[in-house]
């Protein structure tokens, strides 16, 4: 984004953007940033779109050898100049300065609390505000998640029929009150009518099948059309899962409006529509985005979080945990997910508050009880039969399958998304969504396992067959000589498969092939789309197929040496549902590269410690296999595809480059644009700002000596100059700009100078030109720097920004360095 909107002597340029040129493609959606969000951005960011070089993302930071606080750009509790010390859109926050501001604010509140009772109460409320904010985030996110679950369940059933007692009842709730419903046919009741009954007056025959088929496709197309049109018209940021962008935001990048009110409203509505349309996507990833939107909006109720970007990101890290907590009913897994997968800065205080917020959200969802089964998810299951050590072999096979699937999916999906970006396909998002939704509905309806929603499919596959189960997956032959009491757990001994089970296995095989293909083209479209449920569905199908195969192998060959000592005739040896669960974990781990948090989430889903070892074996095997084909998970791959300025902590810098090899300017580049501590006029400073696109400028003693004095942000410089022209009498273009502590003597007729030492960072981070880049990269990662100045014997040589590092790393990996921009 070019800063051409800056005008000499006017702060208006900071807000001026072109109507047509400020476009950024995020998660495959063309986004117009010429519209400002209703709230200040949840900021985090780096270079600006369209910039081709230079030091785009500079901000004041503490020097490597300086323990002091950066020069106060604003009073910690009172900002005399509006906008001073804030950030522009698509810039990176300065973590060091933000933390320093918060320490100054806290220090002042503490000192004043000793002076009066009111100040003491203010200190107490300030200390309590973080916990109150976590409570509100948990309540709001849990309530929204409950509403999304209920609405999605209702609209999904609406594709097949309607309840005569009340159209707002889904199929299950409609049949609860019926006295004519039997357990074996609990889905059939007089109050629930299929569309064939309502339109054709019959439930049997080809005409009824065709009517139901056409209505299923009609509703799928209608829901998907409404979802994509709402996203395109009102909130382009609402598309995709949101996790890649949230990871980038949590690293310090500013994307204005990504977590705003409109994004929250539209994403909540369109997520229900997208899930109900039958597309191969889930709501779990987008729920993390929804929870972060709630947190960002609620942050504006508290000054401590509204005015400090680093503090706000602590809340967002907790909100990410809340999103997973309500998605899977796994509060502990949510906290670990935030820590392992999305958070950039996660202090111990955030860990406690994340746990509290996730707990509140889970309690709220439990109170709402969206599924009517006192569980937080539709596919909660409890297994009772123990597993045997020899079963680790099949579990590891599922891990290998999950790793291969994850690597294949990432490569295929990124290739498809890149094609969407670089061809005319990306210009027609509505047509693309409608075509994919139509094809999905057309192929899904004939197969009962693809017709049902992803969560229902996973619930069916996880199910441990009991005596009264009517599912086709529990269609076994009755064996009269089964030894009574030898089975463990649910009382169902292993039995030979019946024809119904073989039919179900064929249908599951076709469903597996369909899910593998359709998920590749679905993820990344212009609708809210999560990846957890489709990945888990693929793994659960593969696991159930393998589980049934193992069950039948053990039944017919119990005399084999591998079964002889633990699988006697009439015993319940193999649990196919357990294999489905392990397969689901393996495939999800292969796609996202989650390990610890994944195992804990699956453990919380099953409620049994006994199955942690199989889950750990599958998760680690899946990660190892997938890492052999590429170390990036799906979210990191999409971050790189979209060119977000994100320094991945998991990626090692193994090259022998020095700071001088990466810094700007290079030999062929123009000289470094700098300000001098004295001798420049207001006009010269404004001319320098107007003629460049850099986000900050080093300040030196003089052009000749190039001895470093400090660093000043472009935004703060413009605001201060504009403020001086408006409020300081006698300031004209020929007035001197001074960064010195004491003003030099001037002629009597000279206009008054503009003293800007208060906005100067006197201790910017510096490295020498011979500093190894692996050390520099670690400094950027661990301190969250925006830029670092390079010196030689105290003389300023150049500057290194996060984008310079990312470009250098891309170049070393034989990738296009110019891809480190918004594509």
Which CATH-level-2 architecture of the largest domain?
Orthogonal Bundle
Relative helix content: 40-55%
Write down the Rg: 30 Å
Return residue spans where pLDDT drops below 50 for at least 5 consecutive residues: 1-79, 482-491
Number of helices: 28
Shape: elongated
In short:
By secondary structure, the protein is mainly α. 52% of the residues are buried. It folds into 4 domains: 4-85, no CATH class; 131-368, Clc chloride channel, CATH 1.10.3080; 389-463 and 507-642, Clc chloride channel, CATH 1.10.3080; 659-819, Roll (CBS-domain), CATH 3.10.580.20.
Defining key terms:
single chain; 823 residues; mainly alpha; Clc chloride channel; 4 domains; three-stranded mixed beta sheet; 15 strands; 7% strand; transmembrane; membrane
